[in-house]
Amino acid sequence: MTNAGGRTADQVPLPGGNFSLFVQRLGYQALLGLGVLDNPLTQTRSVNLQQARMVIDDLAMLRDRTRGNLDASEEEHLTNVLADLEAHFERLSEDDPS
After folding, report:
1. Residues 21 and 15 sit within 8 Å (Cβ to Cβ)
2. pLDDT tens, 42-64?
3. Of 50, 59, 74, 89, which sees the most CB atoms within 10 A?
4. DSSP-assigned letters across all residues of the chain
């Protein structure tokens, strides 16, 4: 499949080295575990709180380890993503009978 520039998907460079995009990709993984998004491979949603907790903990570790080394927008983005994920995790945990 080609895009408007006439290049195929394998000719378009993947973005990398952007901190906010990195945080967003990790957040996406947590949203999959929280059952908020469809798994792109199976086209289904399933809740896996253990997986979600692992990614949320990774984001919290990243926040703690990068404190003082981020610009204001990066720090705000990480804080907001983490807060949103934590809130969603807590709501699901309260509903989980196990």
Report:
1. yes
2. 999 999 999 999 999 999 999 99
3. 59
4. -B-TTS-BGGGSPPP-S-HHHHHHHHHHHHHHHTTSS--TTT------HHHHHHHHHHHHHHHHHHTTSS-HHHHHHHHHHHHHHHHHHHHHHHH---
